[in-house]
Amino acid sequence: MSFDSTSSLGSISTVNVYPNRSLTIVSNASSTDESHFQTVSVYLYSFNPDSYEDRISFDFHKWATTEELIEKVLQQKQELAHQCADNYELYEIMGTLDGQTFKERKLDRGEYPVAVQMLWTRPMHSESNEATPKNRLVLRHKDSSLLSDGVHFGSTKTSSTIDSFLAKFLTQPQDREYPDLCMLPELTEQTLLDNLKDRFASGHIYTYIGPILLAVNPFNFFPIYNPKYARLYSQIRQLSSMPPHIFAIANITYHSMLRIKENQCIVISGESGSGKTESTNFLLHHFTTLSQKGSSTGSSVEQTLLSAGPVLEAFGNAVTVQNNNSSRFGKFIRVNYRENGMVSGANVEIYLLEKSRIISQAVGERNYHVFYYLLNGASEEERQRHYLMQPTEYSYLNQNNFYAAEGVNECYEYQRLKYAMDAVGFSQQSQQNMFAVISAVLLLGNIQYVRRSGYHSDENVSIGNEEVLSIISTLLHIKASSLQQALTMRRTVMKNDVVISQYSVSEAKDTRDAMAKCLYNALFYWIVLRINQALLKKNDLQMNLIAILGILDIFGFEDVGGKWNSFEQLCINYANEHLQAYFNQHIFQFEQEEYLKEGITWTNIEYTDNTECVQLFQSKPYGIFRLIDEESNINNGTDESMLDKLNQFLKTNEYYETPQKRESAFIVAHYAGKVKYQIKGFREKNKDLMRQEVLMAIKKSKSAFVRGLVGNDPVAVFRWGILRATFRAANAFWQAGKLAKKEAVKAFSEKKSITGKPSSVGKQFQHSLSRLMRTLSQATPYFIRCIKSNNEKIPNHFDDNIILRQLRYTGMLETVRIRRAGYSVRIEYKDFIKQYRILLPKGCESTTEDVKEFITRHALIDNNEVQFGITKVFMRDAEKLILDDHLHRVIMKHIETLQRCIQALMTRRKYIKLRNSVIAIQ
User: Where is the Ras-associating domain (predicted)?
Assistant: First the structure.
């Protein structure tokens, strides 16, 4: 969505989302001391510094109010002499010399404009660069258009789409839409939806629910993430001080971590295609901007972290029906900070790469991005080195005749990928090795098997296109004969004998596909390992670290259709059930439990609790994953016997259903709706076994790179786990660190079960998810709810039904209710005394009763908006702002007194020095 820089904004009024920075210091305004007067310049309707004809300047007393200033301006201007001052408003506007707007704020009638002007960082007429922020006082008629009568947000020569978008972004009409859903005068599903729709139509894709951010994906890029916006949001300390933006959440999280020195995390959730990955990228960029403030160059860790994003997306993202850049894995990014706010190491943890996509994709979907980047962007020399062909010639890519993603330049993306890999630290040799493995994976799908008569068997197989096998062996540096045996023969050890038998055609194909999945999965985790090594330096462990800032970007809830949902979707939706339960805990359960614990008056708000659905998956002994594992470990088990077992033990569970028509599927009633899962392939995907013959062949490769993918030294892996544990321990509380260290060792041991067999995919995923939830529980969470605007990925299209469905199952209406009824500010009495001690009669010696008495007797605080608990005082944001304003005014008064004393002292010293000099001359 774009906006014409010359179009009128009509009669849109500015939303009062900025805090009223009142500077009303009690003083004697009748003083005639010339030091209390300053020159004030007021621009009429415009803030362009070139418009001198509409500017008026005069000396004004610093304790005179906004209302008095407006009256004086009207008296000075003959054409305005008969106008009523009540019809005019005074604005403080920050812009640049070329007329570009940063932000604006309407001054209250009781504020002191001169005092406001004194806080500006630079003199009004200083010589400076055009991009230097310049503040102005601007007089406007209440009913005038912002762009009429000479009002403009920059000259037509220099205005750009970004600047006009910024102007519209900052002028959010309160009469039609609300930046915070808690401000809605009437709260229903319809008013909530209408408000989001009005904001979306105006280009405002972000909306608050208290501290929670709603982000509606417009399927279009908006110019609201450039450095100008980053600078705007880098100074805010309260969400309400600027229009809703993801940068605001990043800034509040960052400064909260530095202030209280505790771990913080941002949990991004939403359906597939709702914009979670892009939100993660915006957060990382803004965190980098914040941590680099005051530094001429960013640290290598920050640059590596930003460069790692395109690498992980290329190898782990794909085009799906719901999303053109869908993450097929989950990731949790830990960024570690020192006391000065600089980054000191980071770590990326990966969850469940979708390996089945390597060998097959649903209709309308593609394989992983990197295949198409390489095949379309590689140079001629690279094509010959890696034996590359066209995408249409690979069996793993031509299943749906879907090769080109809309609006994607594969050649450019390939160059971008290589640049990112260079920035992360992958050597040219490592990159060529990676592309060789990718080529081998694709060629494995082209291996064809033919039946041949066997002496001891009715069905034996051989490879029909040995030239393809020869190329794969060259790429992987494996003997062709060894590779052929691994892909066609089974070795069975029976006591002292080794029995060699031929695969059937179906078994051989499964072995071939298993090898392709194993190689790609191993390559992906090798890439993650190398990224983490680049993000973690030895000296990072010796730094004085204060806290971790985590970002969770995990696969969104998926329902790709009753015919296609499989084991991967089951794991993905189980993870989303966990995140929804985590959200419910913090927004509803913990909140209401604290009110009851503190003994304040409160009426419980009902919400949909999905804890029982989570237990359906993980309970013992009859949870879904336990039953799947049990059947997977039986040698003669099948997918059908697994389904029978699920139906037998779970048929009475209210969250488990069987289809009305008999089919090999089951249904789970998730928080986001009922999803049907096809049982076919569940057992094989959960076991995910790699044939020993294939593993032995790969481990015999002459390439150290290929051997390292699947044959990592266990001792080295164990030591890396310990290193990561130490890294976590250095960044968390002692208890959290000890727990993380144990978990790292435990994670390694969990690779194998008690019987010595590899642990199932489901069990490993459960363990990793449990570790993630424990990590999140040790941090203060901030939530970003991503909403998909429509299912067709149409730019700037708001589908009411689609969005309403998402608002319902995520419990947004109940969330707004509890945020409106609850108390967003809660301060322990000891912290209140420490923070507001100069306002309390007894200062630091004040007691709990003194705090209660002070708040109760405060003239401006509404006692109905405050409650006193056993250990804390609870209040709304408005009451907190009143206290902060009072504190600010008292501090300013003390500062002015101190300034007068220092000025008097300096003047006296100057006088004494001068007097002594006169005496000496005499």
Answer: 65-144
270 assigned binding-site residue? yes
- The helix (H) or strand (E) run that includes residue 91 is strand 88-96
375 exposure class (CB count in 10 Å sphere: 0-12, 13-18, 19+): buried
274 is in an annotated binding site: yes
Q: What count of other Cβ atoms lies within 10 Å of the Cβ of residue 183?
A: 16
Check if 309 is active-site.
Answer: no
* Of the ranges 36-45, 403-412, 535-544, 768-777, the best mean pLDDT one: 768-777
State residue 579's pLDDT score: 92
Are the beta carbons of 890 and 879 closer than 8 angstroms? Answer: no
Three-state DSSP at 167 gives: helix
Secondary structure (DSSP) of 360-426: ---TT--SBHHHHHHHHH--HHHHHHTT---GGG-TTT-SSS----TT--HHHHHHHHHHHHHHHT-
Judge whether 276 is annotated as a binding position: yes
| Residue 273 annotated as part of some ligand binding site | yes
Query: In 3-state terms, what secondary structure has residue 476?
Result: helix
* Cβ pair 354, 568 in contact under 8 A: yes
273 is catalytic: yes
**Which residue among the candidates 164, 277, 317, 566 is catalytic per the annotation?**
277
874: left (phi over 0), alpha (psi -120 to 50) or beta: beta
360 catalytic? Reply is no
Encoding tokens for residue 490?
A: 């089974």
Length of the chain: 922
Does residue 392 carry a pLDDT above 80? yes
Q: Is 511 a catalytic residue?
A: no
The answer to whether 364 is a known catalytic residue is: no
Q: Is 323 a catalytic residue?
A: yes
Rounded CA gap, 489 and 510, in Å? 12
In this predicted model, what pLDDT tens digit does every residue of 637-692 receive, in sequence order?
Answer: 899 999 999 999 999 999 999 998 889 999 999 999 999 999 998 998 888 777 78
847 carries an active-site annotation: no
Active site (annotated) includes residue 703: no
Taking the C-alpha atoms of residue 291 and residue 283, their distance in angstroms, rounded to an integer, is 12
Measured at the CA of 406, the angle between CA 401 and CA 412, to 5 degrees, comes to 105
- In whole angstroms, what is the distance from residue 282 CA to residue 253 CA? 14
CB-based contact 246:283 (threshold 8 Å): yes
- Based on DSSP, count helices (H) and strands (E) in the chain, helices before strands: 31, 24
Per the residue annotation, which of 195, 240, 269, 326 is the catalytic one?
326
**Beta strands of 218-263 (E only): which ranges?**
none
Q: Is 154 annotated as a binding residue?
A: no
pLDDT digits (tens, 9 = 90+) for 69-128: 888 888 888 777 788 888 888 887 765 444 444 456 677 777 778 766 765 644 434 444
Q: For residues 101 and 167, give the distance between their C-alpha atoms in angstroms, rounded to a whole number.
A: 7
Q: Are 743 and 615 in contact (CB under 8 A)?
A: no
Name all domains of the chain by residue range, CATH numbers in brackets. 1-174 (3.10.20.90), 567-687 (1.20.58.530), 825-910 (3.30.70.1590)
